[in-house]
Amino acid sequence: MVRVSGASPAMNDPFDSALVFQVARMIFEEGLGATEVSNRLRDDGYAVSREGVYPLIGVALRAGIVELVPPPAPALEEAIRSRFSLKKGRVHVVQTSGPSAGDDVASATARRAAELIKELKRHRECPGIGLGPGAATRDFCRHLARRLSAQPALCPVKLFAITAGCPATRPELSSTAFFNLFPPEASQDRMGLFAPATVEVDRHQQALKQMGARETYDTRHEIDIVVTAMGSFEDPHDLLRQFLPPEDVNPDWLGNVQYRPYSATGPVKEKRGQRAVTLFELDDFTKLASSRDKHVLLMVRSCSATGCKVSKGRACLPLLAQPSLHVWSEVFLDFATARDVVGTWPAG
Fold it and tell me: How far apart are CA 217 and CA 279, in angstroms?
């Protein structure tokens, strides 16, 4: 599915935005070929050759004038809803495959976040967006930043980091680092979370009271939309598994959301050892997700590491099956993981 928008995004390419939009509309809505487009542009006073049409399509994609929207998988969505007795509209399956599938999940989540921001703008001048860690949220932020640039009416939003750390070798995957993906006009208020990546369990509340974390913790009630992903402890590339001491990882843990672990039966509350510093616990997410004016968007997608074939389907099951782990108001899954969740699914 292709959408052509008349928005006037900030374009870094040296092309007239009106020209780019005109080309996109002729190709994707009218179905004209490059030669026909070139001829019509000449009639309108634009000296664009047949070969010159193609770079303009790339400009339209980068600028957000043209959006490639992957189709949903309604039958698979219904299978998940039926299996776990979930309400319609809460489960979204993105029907794509291959290397771009994970990015398509992030794009679909960003599209939904933009819709929610528009709704919230009716009552709140500057909606708050809480950002979890990891590659999925980074990709989400890249897509949302593009949408905010293309739709100035959605700005500004207030950004919150909801986790303090990530592996030291991957600083670009920390919640606070994602702020750099947004242009200044999109978000003038940003609340980082500066604390150790992990602390002893009994020192967590103390860490949140220190300068650099206290300011964000005390204003977390201003967060209207939380966006995060989930990880699986079966995945060797899981971020929490990478920086948490191995002796502090319980073999009963299946996965984690925003670095907070859970088992097959519900949230885990550690009694000792190291834990990640976070603004929210999983119980907090279930409360937010059930609130009428709050939203938790959860992304479930295959590992982004090259060559990794570990499925997150088993780790995702409790998030759908256990009411105590309904830490999301809407969940977005890639097609491969969704198929694993429901078991064998007919191809096509």
Answer: 6
User: Closest by alpha carbon to 112, among 83, 133, 91, 98?
Assistant: 91
> Could you read off the pLDDT of 45-98 as tens digits, one per residue?
888 999 999 998 888 877 777 777 788 899 999 999 999 999 988 999 999 888
Half-sphere exposure of 50 (CA within 13 A, CB side): 5
Question: Taking the model in full, what pTM does it have?
Answer: 0.86
Place of tokens 């995945």: 235
C-alpha dihedral, 326 to 327 to 329 to 332, nearest 10°: -90
Provide the 3-class DSSP secondary structure of residue 162.
coil
* Token couple for 58: 């790339």
Single-letter amino acid, residue 169: T
Tens digit of pLDDT for each residue in 283-311? 999 999 999 999 999 999 999 887 888 88
Tokens for 6?
């008349």
The token duo for 71 is 């189709």
Instruction: With beta carbons less than 8 A apart as the criterion, state whether 239 and 167 touch.
Output: yes
- pLDDT given at position 1: 57
- Mean pLDDT of all residues belonging to the chain: 90
Residue 17: CA atoms inside 13 Å, Cβ hemisphere, count? 15
Q: What Å distances lie between residue 277 and 179, 235, 242, CA to CA?
A: 19, 21, 15
Q: What is the CA radius of gyration of the chain?
A: 22
Q: How far apart are CA 77 and CA 269, in angstroms?
A: 31
